[in-house]
């Protein structure tokens, strides 16, 4: 796999790969009670967790498993993350508490969904969202995702058991 730095520009965003210069930002963004509650990320998310996460993200890209990109408007200041699992077609996103309310998640989700369909060649792109995560459901709907009739997946993480509903983005019509 060609390992040139990946940068995606669309919808007023520049999504870029995380670098070692972002360790403090990763910690700031991910060491948040909402993030701890809704994700399997370490909590507290300290400097050591940030280093492990960055290493895992870079390794996953090298192995063509996942792409983790910082959400920015200027290519510099990270305000969140969007990731694409290249195996399952699943997308995840986090926006830091200080940056919520700017439609960053919806714009990043649209950008990554377009990349997944048009560049990565994925015909199935999904989100897995808890039924009571209304902000994430609003993001999914605004980016064109639809709730499927797939049986919810029950997950136990950090002593909490919850269901994940599957949302799917329709594959673009083929041109012929």
TrEMBL record:
SUPFAM superfamilies: Acyl-CoA N-acyltransferases (Nat) (SSF55729)
Signal sequence segment: none
PROSITE patterns in the record: GNAT
Pfam families reported for this sequence: Acetyltransf_3
Residues that span the membrane, as ranges: none
Residues in N-acetyltransferase domain copies: 13-168
Organism of origin: Streptomyces violaceus (Streptomyces venezuelae)
InterPro entries with a match to the protein in the record: Acyl_CoA_acyltransferase (IPR016181), GNAT_dom (IPR000182), N-acetyltransferase (IPR051531)
Record's protein name: GNAT family N-acetyltransferase
Domain of life of the native organism: Bacteria
